[in-house]
Task: structure prediction
Amino acid sequence: MSFFDFWSRTKERGALLRRANQLRLNPSQLNLLLGNSEVRPLLQDERMVSLLPPVGMEVFRCFTAVSKEVVQQRHEAEVKERKAWKHQKASEKNLPKPAAHLETGKSLPFIYGVPPPQLLNTPLEDLDPFYQSQKTFVVLSKGNIINRFSADSSCYLLSPFNPLRTLAIKTLLHPFFSTFILLAILSFGVLRFNFPVVKYVYMALFMFEALVKVVARGFCVGRFTFLRDPWNWLDIIIISTLLVSQFIDLGKFAVLMTISLLLKIFTCSQGLKKTVEALVQSVKRLDCVIILTVFCLSILAIIGLQFFMGILKNKCVIWSMNTNTTEFDFHNHTTSPENYYYIPGHPDPLVCGNQSDTERCPDGFNCVKAGSNPNFGYTSYDSFFWSLMSLFRLMMHDFWEGLMQLTLRAAGKSYLIVFLLVFFPGCFFLLSLILAVVVMTRAEQEEAQGAEAIQREEEFGRIVEVLKRREEEQASSRAETPEQQDSLQKKKSAAGIRATKQEHVKEAEEHHRPLCCTCTDAFLKGDCCGCWRWLKQQSHTFIMNPFFDLVIIICIIVSTIFTAMEHYPMMEEFSETLVIAHLVFHGIFAAEMIIKLVAMGLHGYFQVRWHIFDFILVIISLVQLGLADVEGLSLLHIFLPFRVFRLARWWPMLHMFLKIVWASVGNLTLVLFITVFMFSVAGMQLFQSDYKANVCRPSYDCQLPRWHMEDFFHSFILVFRVFCGQCLESLWDCMKVSNDGVCVTFFMIVLIVGKLLILHLFLNLLFINDQLVDSEDKTTNTLQSTMKQTRTWIPKSIWTLWGKNYADQDHKGDTKKDNKEEYLALSSVSSDQLTLDDNHTNMATWEAPVAMAEIEFRTPENAQEKETEHCDVIQKLKDETHLEPEDCCCNRCYICCPFLEIDTSQGTGRVWSNFRRACLCIVQHKFFEGFIVFIILLSCAALVFEDIYLEHRPVLQRVLKMADLVFTFVFLVEMLLKWVAFGFKKYFTSFWCWLDFLILNVTLFSLMGNMLGYTSRSLRALRTLRVPSRFKGMRVVLKVLAVMLPSMFSVLLVILVIWLFFSMIGVNLFAGKFSYCYNDTSEELFSFYVVKNKSECFSLMDLNFSEVNWKTWTFNFDNVGMSFLSLLIMGTSSGWMDIMYAAVDSRQVEDQPRYEINMYMYLYFICFIIIGCFFTLNLFIRVIIDTIHQQRHKIGKHVFLTDQQQKYLRTIKKRFSEKLNNTVPRPQNCCLAWLFHLVTGLYFEIFMVVVIFFNMVVLMVETDDQSVEKSHVLYWIYLILVAIFLVEFILKIIALRQHYFRNGLHIVDFVVLILSIIGLFLADILEKYFCSPSLFSVMRLGRLFALCGAFHHIRFARRIWMLIMGFVMSLPALFNIGLLFFLIVYTFSIIGMFNFAYVKNEMMIDDMFNFKTFGNSIISMTMITTSSGWAGLLSPIMSISPDCDLRLPDPGNCANPTVGIVFFSSYILLFCLLVIQLFIVVILELFNTASPEDTEMLSDDHLQMFYETWRKFVPSGSQVILYSELADFCDGLQDPLRIPKPNTIKLTHLNLPLFPGDQISCLDVLRTITTQVFGESGGVDKAKLDEIFRINSQVPCEQVSFISSTQCAADLIQEHVRDGDTEGTLVQVVGGASQ
Result:
């Protein structure tokens, strides 16, 4: 099953589940099913009979003492039967199993009817036939939920009929009992044993609950007892911890009780319980990917350990003048923090390096390895654990840009290659596999639910069909005689009379109802009097007019625009205008509500949910107008933006978004919320005391950090932040105040559990297409008709004013439209003739090389006809000897300008024709295209040198100017040649030709501007846009992006509306509150107690305090535009913390901020992250998948691959399906053959893998501060391992000979071995300039994956192999997307270098990370590839005077803020699109790889080996062989076709056809052996084998016999009987023949 097959069935599967849940039988059918025993023989299927209730009216029978005796007898009989089955070794599949529809916790199936109320909470006989012999009984609780109990005596004392046990069962199943327990658990989060008596109350409560469960169910003996349910283990943990805590202080272990207590919340609801159990089952399916993730992450940690161990301790230490004295203590000097160099505003000293491309120390400082690591010592690669933590941080994208900055400062910019080629791909590999496996697991659960629903629907259909047939038979049997027919007619007439009487009775009741009820009903429906009904009719006609909805939509849009125009500071006149506008719109919407109330009445108005929403908004707006001057109620103004959601009534995409939000309210969301609550309470219990006692450790001013767990609200916010994936800074603070191990364990559990829950919720919302298809309702169709009428009415009115008839104009317009459609149809046909397939190079010669890729996918309706057409064209092109250019211009040009049409057979026309042929030959030559590609790449590479230092390099500047002229001239000549060769008509039909033409024009205008003194460096970056036209992989990805544009535009419009809503609320909440009084000297904010508002700050400035300045945060909510930018940073960057901090500290407009004075503003940002980011991303990905699905269905192939890549993938899949040793022949020499079997054996490979693992362990134990003795021990171990690998190489090169180098893994082993031996002699040089030579041994771990392929019959190894193969199959598509991504990074790096090179150093822009050079620019763009930290780069660009200086030499250090916003926003959007496509590609390939078709296949090497062995036994080349030689021939084959001796019995089992003379055909032998080895799917069909081996046999068919195992067994039996063999030997022979 492919992913798109699953995706396309989502709607059908959802509808099927709804139908299955609504299946019901009518009362007559249910009575017939339960009471008629003749129905059962009609349902002969055993499974169907087990689903049905017992025959008779007493379906529910009370459990009595007699019932218990019957159950006991059945149990004893079943025990005897099971012993018999066990003695007979019966398979488990044949054993009886419980009925799935009668499991504990499920609702009673509808076919059992409705049980009487008096039987609820009463012991009943078990309904499941399986449990009727298992000593159990059932109890139906509220909602007909099945609860199963053991029929044995509880604790050997209380029988099922004991009143105490009966009371315990009723108490346990009563809904008030579970509600009381739930309230007690929830109150624990508030009370938390703050009072001593509370602890004893909880202890008594939970002991009472456990006692009730034990009394009701029994303790542990028997089924369904207390300890048999894992959920009850929580009670044991709670009670035991409470009891132990009375005598021993458990410390942090007491959190186990808290977690167990909060987990009991899930047991209070069957829905939550089932959801958690499903989540646990899905996590079990992640075992393989979890092990693979830990393994690969360990490998990356080893690489990081070997590359960067100890380098983050490098610091700039001040140079002392007393270093030569004997009293100087170098160690104390280098470890004293006051001797380090600190960057202002940074708590850690500057990390430096001693290489040319590392961070340099300022004058007077030297770079020395001393002190501790950055970030409190928690960021390093000094040991395997810390390296693993750093790589986990990199994989989770948690402040990873800081890690890369520190690493590049200490190691050098060149080590960016390690991140780009090792760390980033490795982390993406792990994340994509985890995501893909979770998606596959979710898909399997969805398919299982769909299959169960299909089965239930089929079973229901069969039951209904049988019941209907039985009812028809009964009806026909009753109507056999005339008397019975008369009686039936009388019954029908009597029933009709009774129905008429009932109608008259109802009318009389309505007539005689009380007057108050009649008036109330008339008032609600609006039927008071005649004039009111007339007004109601007129109002209804008015609101039903489509133009009424159109006017309301326009009013909503204009009202939203006016609301969005609010800003700070705002002029008084403008403010008054907005107030008047709001009053007008309040009146309009109030009038709309009143008109609809009159037209529909109160009853009809409130039947529509949208009307209720409108009513609430109108009431709030009226209340806000009436209480506008009341302090504290001004916040009602923030409800005005809610009007924008009224557009969802007419906007399908917005309506879909709201339905996604509403669909999220379910069990899974509740589980997520409870989990957040649980971790919040647990974290507060673990670390509350530590934060209070050790508050001075993480902070110098002894103030709690913003993210702590001292109270519940901060703990809740912190857990939410960890769920969002940002836990690093909070983890550091926790490790400073508490135990490191406890903090790491807690935060890792919270992070992993949170990510899995959020991912499951995301997928749950993604797979609910069935609930979103009805978004386009009647109002949408009404709006569309209104728009059509409007488009018709407006021009009609205009033509009427002009005195002309609109109908004639309409007819002319239709004629033109028809002509245009006909013209477009013809042009598309000609375009198909010109647009040729990329695979056929001969066809491509007839068109411009860049014109092969169009923006749209063009797919023929009949692929076979299209392929035939291509073949005909190819053959036609091969037959032609002369190339004839096409017409230069279109037909219309020749009609308008007849002089353009010349005779090419003579004179000047002939010369022109020959010249065009020559140009055509030139542009079609492959060297010409290669030269143009080289010039394009060279022109792009030349942009790298145009940095800020170019002005100081006059020679390079002159070279670049000349190169620019040369490039322009070459591209101009190329365009002219293509114009001449292909003509204007063909040249300008290609998008890529148009792009080249525009880029060349821009370049020419740029050169002219430079001559006139106008600089336009940024336009040179457009050169890179020529690259995609020459690379097919990029063109394929760009095609997909182009196809996505329409649907993506509609989604982006919805996202903009949602973000506009939050932007307007942000403006209402925070406009003018993000300002502060700042001390430029100390670089700190003034305290609230010193400066309280703007006026006091300006008073200090008036007193000539030059260091005082009133500033505003760069990213604020002063207007909708800045609010949009702030929200974009909130949703995509790690810089959202500063925005949140400013909001939480804000007070009033123009007031000085105060620390966390407005703490509950956290909720605004939480709502935005959930609604504005999570749900919008879900909608965005949904539309992307839909678009890719449509294109995949349209073109019928992979949308991200070229045809050559698809052929390559098929070849790779074929090669991977073969065993590694298949093509290596076994030596004939006995010693070499023994050695061959040794080195190719499985045990030898396992031994070498164990040695490789031991080598990895040796690398893991290395640390930065290890002792000399430990270093010597590791060195000698390394020598021994190298010797073992050398011995392995010698053995394999002897056994495999030249075939050793045919295996890629052997080549890797050989290279690693050579490097290891060289490293023994040059270890110091390699460690100084690169890394430890022992690191290369990591490459040997590839043999582990090959070993998984060898163990493909093991489920675990097969799943690991499937994951790896799926990712390998996605590599070509990932390469295409990666090429485009690199081009985007390259282009944006050039643009950033041209526009932001002179921006001053601030925030994240410093001496190393900036846009001054191309290297620094591409490092900066790489740093924000995951949209992390780009706010720190944008903030200095947003600076304006006086924050930046325009008086510096041209161009100053100020940039254009608008350019910066567009630059980073477009980059982030493109990045998100490409990253989503990367993950989608891996998911698609993993779905395809998981199919069972990926089995080992018969290859051409196998056929060649078989034929060569056949020639050895049959030198004459005959196609038959004697049967006596078959055993030697099969033993002489190579693996996997080899059947080693003794093989007589195995050959007889093949049932080979035997020709006269005891001869066997070569084709039959090959086909039979391949079917046995590879299976039916892995072998080759008979047609292919017939084509390879032509059989010229003249033997008649009737003379062909078969040598079968039965005949062989008969011959053996007769032979042994004649010889007088014993009975045991005869039985052995018969048994062996029958196998």
